[in-house]
Amino acid sequence: MRLFLLLPLLLLTACITPRETGPDPAAQEALRQREQQRRIEEYQRSTQVSLQDSEQQLLDLQREVRDLRDELARNQSRDQEAFDQRLDRLEQGLRQLEARQRKDREEIVSVLSKRMSELMASQPRGGNSGGGGVHTVGPGETLSAIASAYGVSSRAIIQANNLSNPDRLRVGQKLRIP
Questions:
Q1: Which neighbouring-strand residues pair with 135?
Q2: Which of 83, 145, 158, 176 could, after both became Cys, cross-link 116 (CB 3.0–4.6 A)?
Q3: For the purposes of burial, counting CB atoms within 10 Å of the CB of 52, is it exposed (0-12), middle (13-18) or buried (19 or more)?
């Protein structure tokens, strides 16, 4: 008899299926933005390591040039020409390394500005289309990326906020967007 009472209940629960829902668009967007931010941070870390390596190489070459000059000063009577050639090679290496370092820095700024601009442009602005409002500076953001995201010029933001040094934005700093 118990089985007879349980059978309709089992059939009824077997017919109830959870409602199928599609993926939450807001959650997908948040996940996409977190992944993009993670990639930007990973790129930033790798370029920072590369930059630090270049800086260490530069310091090593500068120290070697200084040591060579000291040695040259102590040993004027020795083979002056060999020292001059070695010194010229080192100074040429220094110039090449400094040029590479400048290029790397420019590339880092360019790539990060572009990516930050894309990330900021993809985030909702809370009704600030066409500029206006206040922006809080986040880690790694540049003035050009912020200006691009709001569709205003960097100069307009500089003037609206009386920025004496626009290259020195602080994380958490509030900028009025004209």
A1: 175
A2: 145
A3: exposed
Beta pairing partners, 175: 135
Question: Of 169, 171, 126, 168, which is closest to residue 149 (Cα–Cα)?
Answer: 126
As a whole number of angstroms, the distance between CA 131 and CA 137 comes to 15
Amino acid at 167: D
pLDDT single digits (tens) 44-66: 888 888 888 888 888 888 888 88
Report the amino acid identity of residue 169.
Answer: L
This prediction has a pTM of 0.39
Sequence letter at residue 58 = L
Cα separation values, 88 from 12, 83, 93, Å: 90, 8, 9
Q: Which amino acid is at 114?
A: K
Residue whose tokens read 């540049």: 142
**From its phi and psi, is residue 79 left (phi > 0), alpha (psi between -120 and 50) or beta?**
beta
